[in-house]
Amino acid sequence: xxxxxxxxxxxxxxxxxxxxxxxxxxxxxxxxxxxxxxxxxxxxxxxxxxxxxxxxxxxxxxxxxxxxxxxxxxxxxxxxxxxxxxxxxxxxxxxxxxxxxxxxxxxxxxxxxxxxxxxxxxxxxxxxxxxxxxxxxxxxxxxxxxxxxxxxxxxxxxxxxxxxxxxxxxxxxxxxxxxxxxxxxxxxxxxxxxxxxxxxxxxxxxxxxxxxxxxxxxxxxxxxxxxxxxxxxxxxxxxxxxxxxxxxxxxxxxxxxxxxxxxxxxxxxxxxxxxxxxxx
Length: 280
What we know:
Elements: H1 3-22, H2 28-42, H3 46-69, H4 71-87, H5 102-128, H6 132-136, H7 138-156, H8 164-178, H9 181-196, H10 214-233, H11 243-277
Protein name: EcsC family protein
InterPro entries: EcsC
Pfam families: EcsC (PF12787)
């Protein structure tokens, strides 16, 4: 299968995935929970929510830069380039990955996302063992893992994330990927629109830079609820271990990272195909 045919296959897969996002498959219990959650969030004072949202954005901007410039991230970047160089000896920097075919880039991205899903699974299982310290670091640890996974996916498709435009775009992908599936479709369409209207390489970001909203608060509340459940289940010991809390913690964190990496992979696939089709 040549690259053009493979692009058509990928676009067909993305279209089917879009249809799944468009369909609201929530159960009655999930709908009732979402309505209850929205009422609780709406009851908070607007000024408190705005301050909270601003703090979330500032924290993620700083964390994104820290991860990007960390030695570990630089080492992984080198690994991506070494793997790509096996496929094409002319590759020197991340931008050169666009020399590879879509299926080769998909292969590189799958290698990285598989590692991050495993890391998330292990980290969730460790959180499930209990302890105030382990429970307290679960949300920060998941944030770091999932931000790193999006950065990895972006680099695997040939997008260097060291400029304001790429940073903001990756954070938008991160926020969208955390949303419940029935809300992801609208964010996906907005991301597609931003890419479709882009006809040249940008450095500075000129769009809206305040990202956190009520959905972000809902996500945090759900994570706190998960940790509360784990704290309760860790009392149920089987063979000397809190197996129920370990299994639930590992499964929940794995599923979250799987959702994030799937969304990021679809987005950067679509972006690359769109740019190649437009000759960018």
